[in-house]
Amino acid sequence: MNTVEVETPGGSYPIHIAPGRLDRLDECIPADATAIALVTNPTVAALYGARAEAALARTGRKIVRIELPDGETHKDWQTLNLIFDALLEQRLDRRAVLVALGGGVIGDMTGFAASVYMRGVRFLQVPTTLLAQVDSSVGGKTAINHPLGKNMIGSFYQPVAVEIDTDVLATLPAREISAGLAEVIKYGLILDAAFWQWCEDNVQALRALQPEAVAYAIRRSCELKAQVVGKDERESGLRAILNLGHTFGHAIESGLGYGQWLHGEAVGCGMVQAAELSAEVHGFALADVQRVRELVAAIGCPVMAPDLGFERWVSLMMVDKKSTAGEIHFVLMPRIGQAETRTVPHAALGKVLERTVQTTP
Ligand code: NAD
Ligand code: GLY
């Protein structure tokens, strides 16, 4: 088993990475827990609900299963409230523990619910998509979407542990694997040129879910994310680089309507756009833009963005948590393995959108 430690002012906890972790969830429930709420969705419940429940049952605690509708379109207030309804109806107290069993949507909503239910109860992340295993379950960002902007309502709230069962990736559709790989390669691009190169060299093994390659990619991603979050839990500076490609990507997601493109697909395409912008204003080599485009295509994500119209692109990108005083801030690279946050002239943005948007004849 690989273990990565996350240390933040808001809480320190282990990330355990191994096949079969799902069958050992009882080991992660704090001894003083009074009850367990297993929050999941019907897709994940059908595959892994019974196994997770069987493991949790060994604690001898009452278990309440809460199934939320599946999908990004349900990451909203109405669905969040279903968690509170169940917790209150079942009279779970403030020593109850919430367990998020699912992808990033379930993890983000369960974490947010845990952060505000009775002013805060403990929760465990059990991420079942590659994207959630390498990114969303780590670092304590929780949120729901608003029709006007992605992840706009949420909190920073750390889990008590992250339990990554690498076996569960076997049932994940190929498109979801590609989306998760977008977040994996992101870490190389912003923080670790050697890891970027390793991803280029191992992309087919990763897409085929070759066990050693996947285990290494998950561990390295978690290590890199833990390093950043450990230095800047609440995104007062450094942590913003983890949003590479997200300013463009979030505009795609909210501009097309949540769920049309997967989050990871939008981030993958957004990284190509960020690479183009980095070349335009930050000296990023054109040969490296091509490497980014080729690796994003090789993991199976789109490299051309949808045509939302320039004005709409700009107004969508303004609704971003990195925007301050009416200015959009982009994560840009001077070279592979380094990143920083900058504002850019509108003219440069216009040129990049012209080059990266798929126009219909
Ligand atoms: P998701 O949660 O919608 O899961 C994708 C699909 O896979 C769903 O239909 C789900 O039911 C299904 N699924 C999950 N596990 C499965 C399995 N093992 N086998 C088969 N199907 C399975 O999407 P996601 O890509 O995991 O997460 C995207 C969300 O994460 C977005 O809302 C994004 O904003 C958020 N996110 C948050 C952070 C953060 O730091 N909190 C970081 C990145 C992304
Ligand atoms: N996914 C970006 C972050 O956690 O900060």
TrEMBL record:
It comes from the Bacteria. It catalyses: 7-phospho-2-dehydro-3-deoxy-D-arabino-heptonate = 3-dehydroquinate + phosphate. Catalyzes the conversion of 3-deoxy-D-arabino-heptulosonate 7-phosphate (DAHP) to dehydroquinate (DHQ). Zn(2+) binds at E183, H246, H263. Its main location: cytoplasm. Its EC number is 4.2.3.4. NAD(+) binds at residues 70-75, 104-108, 128-129, 141, 150. Binds 1 divalent metal cation per subunit. Can use either Co(2+) or Zn(2+). Residues 180-323 form the 3-dehydroquinate synthase C-terminal domain. Residues 66-178 form the 3-dehydroquinate synthase N-terminal domain. The keyword Cytoplasm applies. Its cofactor is Co(2+); Zn(2+); NAD(+). GO terms for molecular function: 3-dehydroquinate synthase activity; metal ion binding; nucleotide binding. CDD domains: DHQS. It comes from Bordetella trematum. It is an enzyme of class 4 (lyase). This is 3-dehydroquinate synthase. GO terms for biological process: amino acid biosynthetic process; aromatic amino acid family biosynthetic process; chorismate biosynthetic process. SUPFAM superfamilies: Dehydroquinate synthase-like. Belongs to the sugar phosphate cyclases superfamily. Dehydroquinate synthase family. Gene3D superfamilies: 3.40.50.1970, Dehydroquinate synthase-like - alpha domain (1.20.1090.10). Pathway: Metabolic intermediate biosynthesis; chorismate biosynthesis; chorismate from D-erythrose 4-phosphate and phosphoenolpyruvate: step 2/7. One of its GO terms (cellular component) is cytoplasm. InterPro entries: Dehydroquinate_synthase (IPR050071), DHQ_synth_AroB (IPR016037), DHQ_synth_fam (IPR030963), DHQS/DOIS_N (IPR030960), DHQS_C (IPR056179).
